[in-house]
Fold:
Amino acid sequence: MDSFLLTSSNALRSQSQHLCGQHAVTSNWFEKNPDLKINYERTAQNIQRSLHSKINGNQDQPTEEIITIPVVFHILHLGGPENISDEQIFDQIRILNRDYQKLNADTSQVVSAFKNKIAKVGFKFVLAGIDPEGNCTNGIVRHYSSKNFWNADSLQDFTFTWPPERYLNFYIVKSINLAPAYTFYLESAFPIMRMLWYVNPGW
Structure:
């Protein structure tokens, strides 16, 4: 997967829209690690070129194989409302699959400039059924931890992460000092994190 996601429980319950904190966290990371920015930009350009080459194709054409992405939610809590319910997690998986399969009711309202950039992507999210040790799991792991008050500058705090090459890791915390949501992405720039951030106002 090479991916993580982190959000606050307040963001999950909020109906208002918030900006992702990705830009601020990314800028801070590059200030501390300027040597990694060149490799990051090179990788980003390669990805953009790859996407651009496909942009005029028929993106709704079914893929030969649906890729299943095992997901694990790490809920960091101290017994408060940040310890969100399993039902909220199940609903988010439903929303992710709806969005990535272009099943949104408002798809027809997408502005014309972006019509050819929405698609059925050919993969689905499923809560992990097996943990890294081979044990059965429901893909929801609750950690009693004071780290539920998240410091966006503490990259070393992702101690609960399952192998990112095998799982998409979501971190749920009570609050973040920067924004309700943020991410890193592209392994070339963030070898510690290898993160992807996705914010869904439907939470």
Remarks:
- Helices lie at 9-13, 22-32, 35-54, 86-100.
- The chain has a mean pLDDT of 75.
- Residues 35-54 form the longest helix (20 residues).
